[in-house]
TrEMBL record:
Residues 5-67 form the HTH iclR-type domain. The keyword Transcription regulation applies. InterPro entries: GAF-like_dom_sf (IPR029016), HTH_MetabolicPath_Reg (IPR050707), Tscrpt_reg_IclR_C (IPR014757), Tscrpt_reg_IclR_N (IPR005471), WH-like_DNA-bd_sf (IPR036388), WH_DNA-bd_sf (IPR036390). The keyword DNA damage does not apply. Residues 68-252 form the IclR-ED domain. It comes from Amycolatopsis nalaikhensis. SUPFAM superfamilies: GAF domain-like, Winged helix' DNA-binding domain. This is IclR family transcriptional regulator. SMART domains: HTH_ICLR.
C-alpha cells in the first residue's frame, strides 16, 4: 500500500491551524507553528487559495479559511443533522402511510436522497440513499425549487430533461408549478419521472423558517393519487404532519 502524501498532510495541518485560530495568520506564523519552510507553507497556501479553501486579506496579507471550505462543512453538517433529526419521523410516516419515504436535500442542482425508508411490506425494493434525483420531475425537487431561487436559476443553464410525456420541461411550466407549491405548501408528481409512479412531498424548515430539505412518500400512482390526479388527502396529511414534526426538531418555531 502506498504511504501518506506529505503535501496533503501539510495542507490538512494548515487548515486545522486556521480553523483553531481566532483570527488570520501570516505565512511566517503558519510556517513557524508547523515547522515548515516559509516557501513550502506559501506554496501550499497559494494552492489552497486557488481552490477556495483559504482566503488572503488584501490589506494584511494574512490567511483565513475560505468560503468554499466553510460551505462544504456547513452542507455536510446540515445534511447529517437533517437525516438524524428526521429518521424517527420518516419511520413513523412509512408505518402510517404504508408507502416508501424519502428525504431529500439540494446538491449541485439536483436532489440528494439522504434517507430512505422502505415500504413496509415484503416487496423487493432498492435503497435510494445517495441517489441524485432531478429537481423538475420529482415532488421532492419541486419543493426545493419552490423555495430556492438559485436552484431555479440552475435549470436555466440547460434544457430540463423529459423523462416521460408528463415531465415539466419549459421554464413557464416549472415556474407555475413552483408558485402552486408555495401557495399550497406541498408538491405532487404524477408519472413525471417514471410512468405509473407518483409522489407527494412537503418542505422541511430549519431555524428562521428556511427550507433545508423535503420529505415525501412515493409509490404507484393508483395508491398515491386520486382518480383526478391530485394527491390522496390521507397521505398528504401524513406527509405534512411529518414535515412539521421534523421542522420543529430542527428549530423552526412556526411549525
Amino acid at each position: 500500500m502506498p504511504g501518506p502524501i506529505q503535501s496533503i498532510e501539510r495542507a490538512a495541518a494548515i487548515l486545522r491551524l486556521l480553523a483553531r485560530g481566532s483570527g488570520r495568520l501570516g505565512v511566517g506564523e503558519i510556517a513557524e507553528s508547523l515547522e515548515l519552510a516559509k516557501g513550502t507553507a506559501h506554496g501550499i497556501l497559494r494552492t489552497l487559495q486557488g481552490v477556495g479553501f483559504v482566503e488572503q486579506d488584501r490589506d494584511t496579507g494574512k490567511y483565513q479559511l475560505g468560503a468554499a471550505l466553510l460551505h462544504l462543512g456547513t452542507s455536510y453538517l446540515d445534511v447529517n443533522e437533517l437525516r438524524s433529526r428526521a429518521i424517527n419521523w420518516a419511520d413513523a410516516l412509512a408505518a402510517r402511510s404504508g408507502e416508501a419515504v424519502r428525504i431529500g436535500a439540494p446538491l449541485e442542482g439536483r436532489v440528494l436522497v439522504v434517507h430512505h425508508v422502505f415500504r413496509p411490506d415484503d416487496s423487493l425494493q432498492t435503497l435510494d440513499v445517495g441517489t441524485l434525483l432531478p429537481l423538475h420531475a420529482t415532488a421532492l425537487g419541486k419543493v426545493l425549487l419552490a423555495y430556492d431561487t438559485t436552484l431555479v436559476a440552475s435549470l436555466r443553464t440547460g434544457e430540463p430533461e423529459a423523462y416521460t410525456r408528463r415531465t415539466l420541461v419549459t421554464q413557464t411550466a416549472i415556474k407555475r408549478a413552483c408558485g402552486k407549491v408555495r401557495e399550497a405548501g406541498w408538491a405532487v408528481e404524477n408519472g413525471e419521472m417514471i410512468s405509473g409512479e407518483a409522489g407527494i412531498a412537503a418542505p422541511i424548515r430549519g431555524h428562521g423558517g428556511i427550507v433545508v430539505g423535503a420529505i415525501g412518500v412515493s409509490g404507484p400512482v393508483e395508491r398515491i393519487c386520486e382518480p383526478d390526479g391530485g394527491p390522496s388527502p390521507r397521505l398528504l396529511g401524513h406527509v405534512r404532519d411529518a414535515a412539521r414534526a421534523v421542522s420543529r426538531d430542527l428549530g423552526a418555531s412556526r411549525w
